[in-house]
Amino acid sequence: MFIQKSQIAARVESKTYPLGEKSEHSHDGPAMALVALSHTPIEHRLYAAMLRALDENGAANQTFTARRLMTLAGICSSPSTVRRGLEGLVSKLSIEREKSREANRAREPGAAYHVFRPEEIIARRNKMGMKSYAKAIEGKEGNHLFERAINKVVENRNLTRREAQVALSCVEGLTNAEIGSRLQVTEQTVKFHLRHIFVKFGVKRRTELISRLLM
């Protein structure tokens, strides 16, 4: 039994690069999977690292410097990359900067953030009317088949973000042409991604892929 088609206004990175870190066991589930898909890889690595730090210390918030987050998340890049990732997480309502520190924002070496849990993030986005992946599938609550597909897509560490979009669109029952229209790419590009998806899931055709994701 396939899931009926529905428009998902996914606003995730269109570039082809890894989904990033696998969800931490303490936060596994549909909510974490949806949040992971809405983040860029850098954003989600930062988010997962901040969650781990808070859980280990039993705190509601902590002060994070760019360099500390680079260590926590294992990011070998520049501090500016981390700062852009934090700005993205704030704009996506995944974290919130402590207001008491806003006045010294330009000069302070670190900032305190409140990190929201996956379920809280989805609720905050819905309340603000944000069109996110989680918002788009609202109404499918309790659809365990779709939740299972999302989790399997997120847990495949070799899958790219674009491939994740294509795979989930297949589960919805969209044709190659419809997937291309949604993602604003050519039908040939969709076929290209599907070939890679088949290899990464060890299947040979679309029906096998859908069965694998829904099993």
Question: What descriptors fit this protein?
Answer:
215 residues, mainly alpha, Arc Repressor Mutant, subunit A, three-stranded antiparallel β-sheet, 3 strands, 55% helix, 7% strand, disordered N terminus
Describe the structure.
- With 215 residues, this protein is mainly alpha-helical.
- It has one domain (25-214): Arc Repressor Mutant, subunit A.
- It is 55% helix and 7% strand.
- The protein has helices at 30-38, 41-57, 66-73, 79-91, 118-128, 133-136, 144-155, 161-172, 176-183, 187-201, 206-214; strands at residues 61-65, 95-97, 110-115.
- Strands 1-3-2 form a 3-stranded antiparallel sheet.
CATH architecture: Orthogonal Bundle
| Number of helical elements | 11
Query: How many domain regions?
Result: 1
Q: What would you call the quaternary organization?
A: single chain
Strand content: 5-15%
Overall average residue pLDDT: 75
How widely separated are the two ends? 11 Å
| Fraction of helical residues | 40-55%
* Highest-level CATH class: Mainly Alpha
**Rg on CA atoms, Å:** 18 Å
Q: Structural class, please?
A: mainly alpha
Secondary-structure blueprint:
Elements: H1 30-38, H2 41-57, E1 61-65, H3 66-73, H4 79-91, E2 95-97, E3 110-115, H5 118-128, H6 133-136, H7 144-155, H8 161-172, H9 176-183, H10 187-201, H11 206-214
Describe, in short, the structure shown.
With 215 residues, this protein is mainly α.
